[in-house]
Task: inverse folding
């Protein structure tokens, strides 16, 4: 509803929000919050700071519970792709790394055990232990913790109803189809219902025979494509140019794009397979060469007496420098084994 400086002597700011129940709340946001991204009609979520790590602990417990008590970052990545595709791809990796950072805190406090390669042994009571650890850290550091704010959308819900792009409304509708329903009020619910009908009208979703709403698997991707087209048209108009949209119809464009992606994928797969074949051959040769060299070296060079190591090391360093200099000078003439003519 409003925002401004909380203290003219510092960079501390505040925002005033209206809750779903209609109440108005003053929320200090400190210095680090992305204050400029908050619009007066935007949608934000306010949470107590001491609960901000609880969700990570629940997610860690969930993934570990599906994997015999082992948290595996690859399992988590696959879970996001299958069950949480509403999370934007460009933030998935930071999202995963935030969980790893949390697990490292658990490990440091003997509440988890690192197994290597992104895998950790997680106890059954990790959520309870996580709460205790967070409370101890907060008490030890004696920080002033500002509320946790998430910017759900910089636009008002009613402005997103017919937007030709991926919006918070779409993410919420997708989550609902998976059984994860957020708390809303009457105005939000009305916007969600209108957006739902818009998606059905544009063949991005459907009403199933049992009356349930379901988004198509390609809906989020198609909405992103719509946004690119709309931005292209806007920028072309602004620059006095004509936007060249080769799309004959929406369905045809998506089919053509899918066919191009399949073709590109097949070409990439074939190229990768050939590269792996050549790389494997080169590596096998290098392995055999190193083993043969090591065998011959040990046969013809006895160990060096302790009192003779220093001068021999100096000589070896000088010879190695000369060898590397020769390689650098002749680098342009070298070719990978895979590029040489096979006999």
Result:
């Amino acid at each position: 509803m409003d925002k401004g400086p909380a203290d003219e002597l510092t960079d501390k700011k505040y925002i005033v929000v209206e809750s779903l129940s209609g109440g108005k709340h003053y929320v200090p946001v400190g210095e680090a919050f992305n204050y400029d991204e908050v619009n007066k009609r935007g949608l934000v979520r306010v949470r107590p700071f001491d609960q901000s790590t609880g969700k990570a602990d629940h997610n860690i417990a969930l993934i570990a519970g599906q994997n015999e008590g082992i948290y595996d970052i690859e399992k988590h990545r696959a879970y996001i792709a299958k069950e949480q595709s509403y999370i934007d791809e460009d933030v998935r990796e930071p999202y995963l790394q935030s969980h790893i950072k949390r697990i490292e805190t658990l490990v440091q406090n003997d509440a988890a055990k690192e197994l290597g390669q992104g895998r950790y042994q997680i106890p059954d009571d990790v959520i309870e232990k996580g709460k205790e650890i967070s409370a101890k850290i907060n008490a030890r550091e004696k920080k002033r913790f500002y509320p946790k704010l998430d910017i759900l959308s910089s636009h008002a819900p009613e402005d997103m109803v017919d937007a030709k792009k991926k919006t918070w409304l779409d993410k919420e509708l997708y989550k609902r189809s998976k059984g994860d329903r957020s708390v809303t009020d009457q105005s939000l619910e009305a916007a969600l219902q209108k957006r739902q009908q818009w998606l059905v009208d544009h063949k991005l979703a459907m009403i199933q025979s049992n009356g349930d709403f379901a988004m198509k698997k390609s809906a989020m991707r198609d909405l992103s494509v719509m946004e690119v087209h709309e931005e292209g048209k806007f920028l072309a108009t602004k620059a006095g140019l004509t936007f060249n949209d080769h799309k004959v119809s929406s369905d045809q464009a998506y089919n053509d794009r899918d066919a191009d992606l399949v073709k590109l994928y097949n070409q990439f797969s074939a190229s990768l397979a050939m590269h792996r074949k050549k790389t494997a051959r080169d590596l096998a040769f290098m392995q055999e060469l190193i083993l043969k060299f090591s065998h011959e070296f040990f046969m013809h060079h006895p160990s060096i007496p302790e009192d003779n190591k220093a001068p021999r090391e100096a000589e070896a360093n000088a010879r190695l420098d000369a060898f590397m200099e020769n390689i650098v000078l002749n680098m342009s003439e070298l070719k990978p084994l895979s590029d040489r003519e096979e006999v």
Notes: The longest strand covers residues 24-30. Strands lie at 2-5, 13-18, 24-30, 43-47, 70-72, 113-116, 119-121, 148-153, 205-207, 213-215. The chain is about 50% helix and 15% strand.
